[in-house]
Structures are given as structure tokens and as C-alpha cells.
Amino acid sequence: MTDDQPKLTIPNHQQRVLFCDFDGTITVEETFVAMLKHFAPQLSSELMPEMYARRLSLRSGVRQLLESIPSECYGEIIEFSRPKLMRSGLVELLDFLDAKGVHFVIVSGGLRIMVETVLGDLVHRVRAIYAVDVDTTGPRLQVKSEFEGDTELVSKVRVMEQYPAQEQVAIGDSITDFNMALHASSVFARDRLAQYLDEQQKPYTKWDNFFDVLEKLSQQWD
Strand, helix or coil at 156? Predict the structure, then answer.
């Protein structure tokens, strides 16, 4: 969402909204994390373990990493994103959601340009994308985020509040999805996110690809 776009809201009578992470969720691999490790290797090795252990906030850690990268690398970041693969079943899930009249909202703690590059034509199938933007006019990247929160560069819970609905479904895989998962009506979790939710005794559905999500939602929403 660019600065000149209005905030997207939906009517209070909307029954369901699906919020989906991008990095490691839509993508098969941790695309944003891999980019940070590639362009800021030393700082990544220092800060990422602290973020995963929740000793360092995502807001602070990711900002430090992004703002350590020279602006001249922006084009390389786009090219780095281009060959990344998406997890299977996404198109079929989007078809199902369209038929049900359910909005699909991407909420990413990573860079918007990476999300849009990987999605390609599927960008037009998504209700909205909330992610981190950067200013490249200075010597190093400068972070811009409309939904910056206390501990996150993109507060996924604040984004969820833009879409009041009877049922809010979250799909994610890691620490960036933890707060979103805690506030969702139901959660599809894998990898680190599943471990964090186990610790909190928050129920979730395990998943590997979007066909798993589609199958479960088809059963629940019929």
C-alpha cells in the first residue's frame, strides 16, 4: 500500500478474511531472510538469533539490517527475488476464496518489492499487500512502514484491525506471524510458528502447502 492509497476496510458484516504471511509461507524458502543474509551477512549472523529468541524486537532488528544495506543494491535485491518459488496450491486457494467471497490479504514483515516481484501476475488476485517500503534516495536504504508497531516494522495485528470480520484466519510460519496468530480466530502454522504456538498452547492446524489449507477450509466452510 503506497502512501497515497486510502486504507482498505471492509464492511462489518464481512464473515471471513484470510491473512497470509509471505516469506517462507507463500515462498518455499525464507526469501527475505535469505536476502538479508546475502546483503548483510555479518549483521544478520549477530541479530537474527536474537530476534528468533525474542530477545530483540523485529522492529529494531529488521530496521538495523535493512538500513545497513547500500541503496545501490536495490536493483540486485529485486533480481535476487525473481527466481524464488511459491508454495504449491496458492492459485487453487485463491480460486476457492474468490468463490466464497473471502478476501486474501498478504501481511509481510519483509519488503513490498520482493512480495510483488515473486507474485507477478498474482498481485491482482490479492485484496491488499501490507509490507515494508524503503526510500532509496540516500546512501543506504531507509525503512518506511505505515503500520509500524511497538515490536514490529509491520504490526500484523494493526492490519487485521482494518478488516473487522466474524472469522479471521491466519497462515504463517515464523516469529513474524506470532502476534497475528494469537489474535486470529484460527491459524495454519508450520515451522517456528508452530513451536511458538505450542509454547502458548494456542490451537492451530499444521500445513505444508496451500492444498492443505484449501482442504481444511473446504471442510469447515461447506
Answer: helix
